[in-house]
Design brief:
Elements (H helix, E strand, L loop, with lengths): L2 H4 L8 E2 L4 E3 L15 H6 L7 E5 L4 E4 H19 L6 E5 L5 H11 L3 E4 L6 H11 L3 E4 L13 E4 L2 H6 L5 E5 H4 L19 E7 L7 E6 H13 L8 E4 L6 H14 L2 E4 L5 H10 L4 E4 L1 H9 L1 H7 L7 E4 L6 H10 L4 E7 L7 E3 L3 H4 L6 E3 L4 E5 L13 E6 L5 E7 L4 E6 L5 E3 L2 E3 L1 H8 L5 E11 L3 E10 L7 H9 L10 E4 L13 H10 L2
Parallel strand pairs: 3-13, 5-6, 5-7, 6-10, 7-8, 8-9, 12-13, 12-14, 14-15, 15-16, 26-27
Antiparallel strand pairs: 1-2, 2-19, 3-4, 10-11, 16-17, 17-18, 18-22, 19-20, 20-21, 21-22, 23-24, 25-26
Keywords: Ligase, Magnesium, Membrane, Transmembrane, Transmembrane helix
InterPro entries: AMP-bd_C, AMP-binding_CS, AMP-dep_synth/lig_dom
Family: Belongs to the ATP-dependent AMP-binding enzyme family.
């Protein structure tokens, strides 16, 4: 940025009148100059004093940083020489949260191969569609989930030896992760310098608004930039202990609490899934300093605060980091009243932006209730009217456009006089159920396949516990006696639990624009008016 342009930037909010662009108020992003660098090598080269990298709360199994990197090298060696994984190959990870996921992901990326993750609760049909799109050469999975890959023809890497004894038929098992972690390299070094920062490192699936989930390619350079943000301006003091229940198949879990924490030397306590009692027990046992949550969990903790405080000692918890969906001012204030010694830090990012966006990074910033934070370091932003394309200014609502090392455009928002970003609405009306993204178009396509349904529209319906859940408006064919239960059951058999329709209303016709676009906003207003 030229000095003359920099001088026009308002230091209070980072806004430049000359080009209507918001610039981050945080420290400049320091990136490595080496173009032949993979993200695994970049993370492993960072210096810190951390000792324990991950703890499995279910088994109390721990892995130190030194043992983790030793395992990564051994697994990468085996994947390359024994399984034949090459640069550019795709490896599918289908597993609940575990210590195995960081080892597999870091090993795969060190080879220049690509990691793609699938939600473990997805149906076999949903997973098969992702397989058809991403074309993986290998899949890492567990015994409990292996049946979802039966018939796929993909080579399988199982977690443990015992899994092979009970694995379903039709699987081609080519390796055991626990055995690879013990195998000494055969003197053949894995060549990492073939990897370029522009090579794809991960392929995460973001819930689209025009149909099924779509793959988002992220390069090694994108991920290095993401990790470098936390090194440049750490979101916590080093060597903190995090309790992580957010899924590792999602960008929130994978990028922040598999990659970034490793570079900082922090400890991540892993829970395979969210359970309030198990989470609080783990926080007490491991003296956790930070909880990683989605907004519905904060609501639950507010409602059950007396029970939690009576049963668990959570005096070491100082911070809650919240993401996955906007956090309202009311929920933030309610949480602070129940837990006055805990600060709530919110963040905002997209799968497409690889964690870049905005975040709350200090107690002072957390007092700006309702804001998702200041722009991430290295990020530039514009607020644009989505209808006219006109660039907006301070306190004006429009679509957020971001520019940086890894960026996409996103939601309706505004930036205030002090440079804080506020999310106003989901631009494309994605439904956010307990932090999970549910695309209405996917459910609508399934509904239209029902022989008794003439037309359908799916909208987000507000819920205190879940945030939102999918509600369907259905226009039945003439003479049909289709009921709500049959519609709900029909969809439940075809989608993951978090995508299920939980409310149905029947309507004569679905309101549409003259061009045929569904007027979901009108249906949302009508549904809310009935509350």
């Amino acid at each position: 940025m030229a000095n003359s342009q920099r001088s026009r930037i308002d230091p209070r909010n980072g806004f430049c009148n000359a080009n209507s662009t918001f610039y981050s108020k945080r420290k400049p992003l320091a990136l490595p100059s080496n173009d032949s660098l993979d993200v695994t090598t970049f993370i492993s080269s960072q210096t810190h004093r951390g000792k324990t990298a991950f703890i499995d709360a279910a088994t109390d199994h721990r892995i130190s940083f030194s043992d983790l990197w030793r395992a990564v090298d051994r697994v990468a060696n085996c994947l390359h020489h024994d399984v034949g994984i090459q640069r550019g190959d795709v490896v599918l990870v289908l597993s609940p949260n575990s210590i195995s996921i960081p080892i597999v992901c870091l090993s795969v990326m060190s080879l220049g191969a690509v990691v793609t993750t699938a939600n473990p609760v997805n149906t076999a049909g949903e997973i098969s569609r992702q397989i058809a799109d991403s074309n993986p050469k290998l899949a890492f999975t567990t015994l409990e989930l292996a049946s979802k890959l039966a018939g796929s023809g993909i080579s399988i890497l199982l977690e443990r030896v015992v899994d092979t004894l009970c694995a379903p038929g039709g699987l081609k098992v080519v390796g055991i992760l626990s055995e690879m972690m013990k195998k000494e390299p055969r003197g053949q070094e894995v060549i990492r310098n073939r990897v370029n920062i522009d090579d794809t490192a991960i392929l995460l699936y973001s819930s689209g608004t025009t149909g099924r989930s779509k793959g988002v390619n992220s390069s090694h350079g994108n991920l290095i930039a993401h990790v470098a943000r936390y090194i440049t301006e750490p979101f916590e003091q080093p060597q903190q202990t995090f309790i992580c229940t957010v899924p590792f198949f999602h960008t929130f879990g994978l990028l922040n609490f598999v990659l970034a924490t490793l570079a900082l030397g922090s400890t991540v306590v892993i829970l395979p899934r969210f359970n309030l009692g198990e989470m609080m027990a783990a926080a007490e046992k491991y003296r956790a300093t930070t909880l990683i949550l989605v907004p519905p969990v904060l609501v639950t903790m507010i409602n059950r605060a007396d029970e939690i405080m009576a049963k668990y000692d959570v005096s070491f918890v100082r911070t809650v980091r919240c993401g996955g969906a906007p956090l309202s001012k009311e929920v933030t204030e309610g949480f602070m009243k129940k837990y006055p010694t805990v600060d709530v830090y919110q963040g905002y990012a997209l799968t497409e932006s690889n964690g870049a966006g905005a975040s709350i990074d200090s107690v002072e910033e957390s007092q700006r209730y309702g804001a998702v934070g200041l722009l991430s370091c290295g990020v530039e932003a514009r607020i644009v009217d989505p209808n006219t394309g006109r660039v907006m200014g301070l306190n004006q609502t429009g679509e957020l456009w971001l520019k940086g090392p890894s960026i996409a455009k996103g939601d309706l928002c505004y930036i205030d006089d002090d440079g804080f970003l506020f999310i106003v609405d989901r631009l494309k009306e994605l439904i956010k159920y307990k932090g999970y993204q549910v695309p209405p178009a996917e459910l609508e396509a399934l509904l239209l396949n029902h022989p008794d349904i003439l037309d359908a529209a799916v909208i987000p319906f507000p819920d205190k516990e879940a945030g939102q859940y999918p509600m369907a408006y259905v226009a039945r064919k003439s003479g049909s006696n289709l009921c709500e239960k049959k519609v709900i059951d029909y969809i439940s058999k075809q989608v993951a639990p978090y995508k299920k329709i939980r409310k149905v209303a029947f309507i004569d016709s679905i309101p549409k624009t003259p061009s045929g676009k569904t007027l979901r906003k009108d249906l949302i207003k009508f549904a809310i008016s009935k509350l």
